[in-house]
Design goal:
- By secondary structure, the chain is an alpha/beta fold.
- It is 41% helix and 15% strand.
- It contains 14 helices and seven strands.
- Strands 3-2-1-4-5-7-6 form a seven-stranded mixed sheet, with helices on both faces.
- β2 (144-150), α9 and β3 (169-173) form a beta-alpha-beta unit.
- α11 runs parallel beside α13 (270-281).
- The chain starts with a helix and ends in a 6-residue tail after the last helix.
Length: 331
Amino acid sequence: MGGRLYTRSLCLSAQARWSPGGLQVPDFRFRGDSEARRRLMAASTEQATGGVEKTAAEEKPRVLEPGAAPFGNFPHYSRFHPPEQRLRLLPPELLRRLFPQSSETRPILGLDVGCNSGDLSVALYKHFLSLHDGETCSDASRELHLLCCDIDPVLVERAEKECPFPDGLTFITLDFMNQRTRKVLLSSFLSQFGRSVFDIGFCMSVTMWIHLNHGDQGLWEFLAHLSSLCRYLLVEPQPWKCYRAAARRLRKLGLHDFDHFRSLAIQGDMASQIVHILTQDHGMELVCCFGNTNWDRSLLLFRTKQATETHPIPESLIEGKERNRIRFWRQ
């Protein structure tokens, strides 16, 4: 209970200042070409040859029992964790405030790790560009472009087929913990825009699956990679109770337990653990906590200490009762 109160206190106190290898890689720019998209899908699946990725690919076609998604690759994730629960906490103007309009900052480049079937990726894209259902914008891809990756090729294929903004969102199959594949695919994408890092990364309910499948060291390395790739990072950590629930689901199905679950030293208040690792070990600053979803997960915004944008949250974004809920973060 004390850890939970500490996390909520941390959120309140943070709530207002946001201030190639030899592989052949595809050209990510030609998103309007269906053949180019097909080649991209094929290339990302073939190149993502890590052990976990291979396992996911070998399951196809597969039918998962409810709860039997050891990498978080639930086939209908958004049905029980709808995107709207995150969007209601995030100001639509967030990216425009972090990255003021200029030719050097457009398009804003985002990395969505663990995108599943793309429902949240599309919802974030629409939210930050203030697009309504059924609405498209010819200039959207020049404003924001998201590279969305997931370990499950079946989910990625679905995301690719159903994406209403093919010019602004690129979906690839990627085991993010496979260093060689990660470097090649991400560097190739960034090079198309003359960039070396992403403006912002999204890590929404992914940290637990990395932790359970790769252990304490894997979680530490995962966060290290993200912090080196992104100027800003929005993280939604799963609380420890979700770890126990995930392990319990596998046991009920008669499946093997997670290899690392019983040996994890990093546990307890996972939001605070993530904050500690990113700020103390990986040189990021906690800028803002946007609050908690209905399923009690915090939305935490970090930035690299080298980031130059240090804009406070504009008063226009804080209305009504939000003024009483927001507190300035003090180091």
